[in-house]
Amino acid sequence: MKAHFLGSLAALLAAPLLASEPVMFCERPLVAQPVAENTWMVEGLTEELSTSNCGHIGNQAFIATPNGVILIDSGSSPHFGEALKTLIAQHTSQPVRWVLTTHHHPDHFFGNAAFDKAQHLTLATTRDLMARDTDALIDNVERLTGRSLERSSVALPEVIEAGDITLGSYPLTLYAMSGHSGGDLVIMDHATGVLFLGDMGFYQRAAATAHTPGLQQWLEELHDLRILNATIAVPGHGPSAPPATIIDQTIDYLEWLDQRLSDVASEGLGANHALAGELPDTFSTIALAEYEFTRSVMQLYPRYEARLLWGAPH
Amino acid sequence: MVLLTQTFIPPRLAATLAALACLLISVFPPASHAATLNTAEKDPLNSFMWPVYRERFLGDASVVFDERVIVNAPRFAEDSGQVPIELDASALEASGEPITDIIAWVDLNPIPRLFTYSPMSHGLAKLSLNIRLEQASAVRVAVKQGDTWHVGGTYIEAEGGGCTTPGIATADTDWENTFGELQGRLFDNEDEQRLRLRLSHPMDSGLIPSQPAFYVQSFEMLDHQGQQVATLDIEASVSANPTLGLHMRPSPGGYVIGARDNNGNRFSMGLQP
Question: What are the Cα distances from residue B273, in Å, to B83, B121, B182, B252?
Fold first, then answer.
């Protein structure tokens, strides 16, 4: 009887805090969607940073392991990170012990400060980019969301190498890529078949290209990711879906963008010619397609001219 | 053409004249109905700087807002140091007398004027280049045909997106290595030769403390016999490393492009079809 009582007490302690109260962020409930066994994603809105979404535009994911929670990306503010921590606690009693940052964009790691007891890990390339751009990115997020961030709280993670790693006793395979931002961590969980794409994959939300080393690079890496043996993928933005569905949509859009920029630049026309005309119907269901396309033309057009007109190396 | 031109007539008198003109027009419809459809007297961009720059740049010549002066630009600036704009007044040019002068400016830039273009004998009324935008603003182009300035424009928001890092990812810190490099291509079409040019130059405005003004002031286009056939004067509101798209009447021997900055440096190159 006593043993039984202790057993149920232990079960009670180990069990997640099954609070019926939803976790609210920015006046909306924050939801953890199950992706696989012990694996959840929190889907951001497919919008640009704004005052109405308080910066919740990117996806986060977490894996509850026997030795603690592995969190993949932490959102765009310490305030969001706190809400995320509460949400995670509703699904597992384990604390967050590891935070993996997929890349250096503000909607993916500005929540890191809320997990100050965890070990923070990222690729060396990403760490360098974080060191370079964080101040400018904080300015942007503050301007666009109208919320102030604590500058001092954004610490740089430790560096982790690509390859097979073990966090506690939990194995993951890491891939070091660069197509989206110059430093992009892609994570494969062979135990559950989940592929965490970070912003290498955008789904139903147009790809952002501000820091791409080149669309060709990004496309090559996407073709490498396509042959991995995963059953479901979590993109950096947009819903989860079979890996090929997400990767192919990102490939189709980037290939079209690359072709459009090449065609117009090689004719000696200006960037506004690349912007003229409608986007193909194929991309009409993709959120922010026109907005991101406009940004991409301004970001990338001079590079296409340099390569196609002035003979600069690829 | 009271309805088509903005003048310095006092408002009450103008209203009376306008009413009178309406009466007259209802009796005698204007010869060119198309012109009344795409022109207007009131600033379509509703900018408070319009009267100031109208007076400064256009003087007391007659002015009309004209949809045939098309200014293409993105709705917003991703990098406010490099905003691509494009002028196309070819419909206006095709409609009548030659175009003699083109002036462009940004209403809310500290250096408002962008360029003054004299198409002379060979330039067509089309031009593209990248500009700097201090803040969201109206961008204007005034095209002089006969005695009248035809004005077009657009409005550009000046905020980039969330992961934009202006000046960090793209800052050219070693500009001295490529300084003065002039690159160009000529694209030969049936009715025009399109020139695309890029000059490596910092275009320092002189507005940043302890950084003297150092910018390209003028381009000139010569035919193969060395005859000047079009000129373009620019200000430091044009982006670093000016990239120009010019549209010229076909010249069998191609063109020679010359440029000069405010320190007296000269740059030139020849472009053959």
Answer: 29, 19, 18, 7
| Distance between CA atoms of residues B76 and B86, nearest Å | 14
The mean predicted confidence, pLDDT, of chain A is: 92
Instruction: Using alpha carbons, list the distances in angstroms from residue A178 to A123, A312, B88.
Output: 10, 21, 39
How many residues in chain B? 273
| Structure tokens given for A227 | 């042959």
The model's pLDDT over A220-250, given as tens digits with 9 standing for 90+, comes to 999 999 999 999 999 999 999 999 999 999 9
Contact: A295, B77; criterion CB under 8 Å: no
Strands (E), chain B: 39-40, 62-66, 70-72, 83-88, 99-106, 113-118, 123-131, 137-145, 148-156, 182-188, 193-199, 216-223, 228-234, 243-248, 255-261, 266-271
B183 CB within 8 Å of a chain A CB: yes
Can you tell me the distance from the alpha carbon of A222 to that of A202, in angstroms, rounded to the nearest whole number?
11
User: What span, in angstroms and rounded, lies between the C-alpha atoms of B37 and A143?
Assistant: 41
Q: Taking a C-beta distance cutoff of 8 angstroms, is the pair B165, A137 a contact?
A: yes
| Helices A289-308/A243-266 angle, 10° precision | 50
Hey, what amino acid is at B155? Y
User: At A185, which helix (H) or strand (E)?
Assistant: strand A184-189
Q: Are B162 and A211 an interchain contact pair (Cβ–Cβ within 8 Å)?
A: no
Residues of B in contact with A137 (CB under 8 A): 162-163, 165
Q: Is the pLDDT of residue B26 over 80?
A: no
Query: Is the pLDDT score of A277 beyond 90?
Result: no
In the block, tokens 């979404």 appear at: A53
Q: Any chain A CB within 8 A of the CB of B189? A: no
A270–B168: do the CB atoms touch at under 8 Å?
A: no
pLDDT at A15 exceeding the cut of 70? no
Residues A45, A48, A49, A51: is their CA dihedral positive or negative? negative
Tell me the Cα Rg of chain B. Answer: 20
Q: What's the rounded Cα separation, in Å, for the pair A182 and A113?
A: 23
3-state secondary structure of A169: coil
pLDDT higher than 60, residue B15: no
The structure's pTM equals 0.87
Among A105, A211, A272, A304, the strongest candidate for a mutation testing the B interface, having the largest count of B CBs within 10 A, is: A272
Query: Any bridge partners for residue B261, and if so which?
Result: B216
Task: Tell which of B126, B159, B163, B177 to mutate to test the A interface (max A CBs under 10 Å).
Answer: B163
What pLDDT score was predicted for residue A2?
46
Q: What is the pLDDT of residue A136?
A: 82
Using the structure block, give the residue that is written with the tokens 């993916």: A108
HSE-CB of A274 using CA atoms within 13 angstroms: 31
Q: Are A239 and A203 in contact (CB under 8 A)?
A: yes
Subunit contact B84:A267, Cβ cutoff 8 A: no
Residue B115 neighbours by CB under 8 Å, 6+ apart:
B102, B103, B104, B127, B129, B232, B233, B234, B235, B238
CA distance A236 to chain B (A): 14
The model's confidence at residue B24, banded by pLDDT at 50, 70 and 90, is very low
How far, in Å, CA of B267 to CA of B202, rounded?
14
